[in-house]
Amino acid sequence: MSIAIANLSKAYGINQTELKYSRPRASRAEEKRDMVEFSAKSQDYSFAAKMLANVPDVRNETVESVKARMAAGKYDIPSGTIANKILTDYNNRQISL
Coil, helix or strand for 40? Predict the structure, then answer.
């Protein structure tokens, strides 16, 4: 059931403006603030993400070491190791045709 403001103002002899805005306003101390709390897990994730942002994507020391060994002719990987890696990677792929 809906009661119009005009009908209430007539019934109680109140001005419509007074009826609309007669609600007392809360003081600043009474106002409720929205709060957000993050779980410990999300805080840990945030910390880890910040730490990972400082880690370089490429390990320059390793790259330079391999380059130097290749230039000196001392970088030797057995062909069986290479073939095994290729076959393992090929078998692990999920190819849908």
Answer: helix
The CA-CA-CA angle for residues 11, 17, 19, to 5°, reads: 50
Q: Is the model's pLDDT at 70 over the cut of 60? A: yes
Percent of the chain past pLDDT 90, that is, above it, reads 34
Residue 63 half-sphere exposure toward CB, CA atoms < 13 A: 5
Backbone conformation region of residue 13, classed left if phi is above 0, alpha if psi is from -120 to 50, else beta: left
Q: How far apart are CA 48 and CA 42, in angstroms?
A: 10
Check: pTM over 0.70? Answer yes or no.
no
Type and span of the H or E element at 52: helix 40-53
Joined tokens for residue 91: 């078998």
